[in-house]
UniProtKB/TrEMBL annotation:
<dbReference type="Pfam" id="PF01322">
    <property type="entry name" value="Cytochrom_C_2"/>
</dbReference>
<dbReference type="GO" id="GO:0009055">
    <property type="term" value="F:electron transfer activity"/>
</dbReference>
<dbReference type="InterPro" id="IPR012127">
    <property type="entry name" value="Cyt_c_prime"/>
</dbReference>
<keyword id="KW-0249">Electron transport</keyword>
<feature type="binding site" description="covalent">
    <location>
        <position position="149"/>
    </location>
    <ligand>
        <name>heme c</name>
    </ligand>
</feature>
<dbReference type="InterPro" id="IPR010980">
    <property type="entry name" value="Cyt_c/b562"/>
</dbReference>
<keyword id="KW-0349">Heme</keyword>
<dbReference type="GO" id="GO:0020037">
    <property type="term" value="F:heme binding"/>
</dbReference>
<dbReference type="InterPro" id="IPR015984">
    <property type="entry name" value="Cyt_c_prime_subgr"/>
</dbReference>
<dbReference type="GO" id="GO:0042597">
    <property type="term" value="C:periplasmic space"/>
</dbReference>
<dbReference type="GO" id="GO:0022900">
    <property type="term" value="P:electron transport chain"/>
</dbReference>
<keyword id="KW-0479">Metal-binding</keyword>
<protein>
    <submittedName>
        <fullName>Cytochrome c</fullName>
    </submittedName>
</protein>
<feature type="signal peptide">
    <location>
        <begin position="1"/>
        <end position="25"/>
    </location>
</feature>
<keyword id="KW-0408">Iron</keyword>
<dbReference type="InterPro" id="IPR002321">
    <property type="entry name" value="Cyt_c_II"/>
</dbReference>
<dbReference type="GO" id="GO:0005506">
    <property type="term" value="F:iron ion binding"/>
</dbReference>
Length: 159
């Protein structure tokens, strides 16, 4: 049993180090795999959108300042950013499937990961601003999150 536990632990450490090393784009192996990958990607982006919408409303003054909503939504965006590379890494180009992703996303995956890192950093900063209750800084912090999103959209999302 002790040998099995050591072997499991070693496997878990290796797996964790591979995950932490960054996602590597991989080709979808079937049409179903490609369709499923797209479905999951789009679900992730719907969650991102649902958390960005109230923040955008606050930044524009259409919604009142609410530090609790900002902190919660920024935390969620940070968590979604943590998952994003894994959900974007499946290259669906070789199948005739409907996707909003430009082909360049898989050719420049390290750039995509950098942009995800910028989103993560901006969301973390927004959490700090919300926790500090600094009403003078929240619009700028929300703007940083929006700019991180836009940066990826500009380069990797079809119009």
């Amino acid at each position: 049993m002790k040998h099995l536990t050591r072997r499991f632990t070693a496997s878990a450490v290796l797996f964790s180090s591979l995950i932490c090393a960054g996602a590597v784009a991989e080709e979808a192996v079937s049409r179903k795999h490609a369709e499923t990958a797209i479905e999951y990607r789009q679900s992730l982006f719907q969650l991102l959108k649902s958390n960005m919408a109230p923040l955008g409303g606050m930044a524009k003054g259409a919604l009142p300042y609410d530090a609790t909503v900002m902190e919660t939504n920024a935390m969620r965006i940070e968590q979604l950013a943590d998952m994003m590379a894994d959900y974007l890494k499946v290259d669906t180009r070789k199948f005739d499937v409907s996707t909003g992703a430009k082909d360049d996303i898989w050719d420049n995956f390290s750039d995509v990961e950098d942009k995800i890192g910028a989103l993560h950093t901006a969301a973390s900063n927004l959490q700090s601003v919300a926790q500090a209750g600094d009403e003078s800084a929240y619009r700028s912090a929300i703007g940083e999150v929006g700019a991180a999103c836009k940066s990826c959209h500009d380069d990797y999302k079809k119009d």
